[in-house]
Amino acid sequence: MNILEKIKNIYPELTDADFNPFGSIRIQNDSDGRGDYIAKWEHPTLSRPTDEQLT
Amino acid sequence: MAITLDGSDNKIAIGANATGSAYLRLYEDTDNGTNYVDIIAPASITSNRTLTLPDATGTIITTASTFAGTGPAFSVYPNADQTGLTSGTFTKVAFINEYFDTANCFDSTTNYRFTPTTAGYYQLNFSAYVTASNIATMEPFIYKNGSSFSSGQYLMAASSTTAAILSASNILYLNGSTDYVEFYVFSTTTAGTYTIKTGAQYTYASGALIRSA
Predict the structure, then answer these.
(1) Which of B4, B39, B106, B210 is the most core-located residue (most Cβ within 10 A)?
(2) For chain B, what is the mean pLDDT?
(3) A19 shares contact with chain B (CB less than 8 Å)
(4) Residues A29, B87: contact at Cβ < 8 Å?
(5) Is the distance from CB of B141 to CB of B91 less than 8 angstroms?
(6) Cα–Cα–Cα angle for B56, B57, B62, nearest 5°?
(7) What is the ipTM of this complex?
(8) Is residue A35 assigned to a domain?
């Protein structure tokens, strides 16, 4: 399960619109071998998941 | 007309007359002929002017000169497909191959970013070729200092779209020391991952200094 799917599992109310370029959450991969990560979390009501929740 | 040599006032003055303004005539090598270059004052001058020569060796250009800047320029492309990319993520394009990188300002080994050492305004171009079993959306981005700065076209694909090539371009000011740019793709699929395809004619980035700071 990738990080985006994990976030959607934690917050089922999130939709694809929350992750698109105009959304409040940005998942990014810098092609440095470290994989996907949360580059931006500006959701107005939901708090950023902890690393523990995402493992 | 009078020529005044005034050592105490550190200048040579060439006077004018009613026929024309003052000028300095410099002849070519006599082996080549008798042509010359005149450096001439305008016929009418609103107020006193000063032309200061540059503190550098070189040839002075004119409005008739063909001028090409000597600032940093680069053109890069990936050397392999970037596969298995998560739908809904922004992925940096790993530009590993360089057509040229005139000032060695493009990092094509670690961070895939352009950090010019000359301050000024840079024209930047980015094109990306993405494939997936079914692309839903795609958008290319030029990042400045780690944040998206400019996007290109935004594709909302019809069903069964398996490939898209989109581009972005803009003119960015870069400070010549810490500012850098990178190139990202955002894409979503209806199912599965997406791929940023190699192919130098489809996926590339380029840029050049077009105006000094």
Answers:
(1) B106
(2) 93
(3) yes
(4) no
(5) no
(6) 90
(7) 0.90
(8) yes
- Residue A42's DSSP bridge partners are none
- A52 within domain boundaries: no
Q: Is A42 on the interface with B (CB under 8 A)?
A: no
Q: Is B122 exposed, middle or buried (CB count within 10 Å of its CB: 0-12, 13-18, 19+)?
A: buried
Question: How many CB contacts within 8 angstroms connect chain A with chain B?
Answer: 52
A29 with B90: Cβ contact below 8 A: yes
Task: Give the domain extent around B208.
Answer: 73-212
**Number of domains comprising chain A:** 1
Q: Does A28 contact B85 at a Cβ distance shorter than 8 Å?
A: no
Whether B7 has a pLDDT exceeding 80, the answer reads no
- For residue A27, being part of any structural domain is answered with yes
Q: What is the predicted pLDDT for the residue at B61? A: 82
Q: Do B87 and A32 touch (CB under 8 A)?
A: no
Q: What is the residue range of A35's domain?
A: 3-45
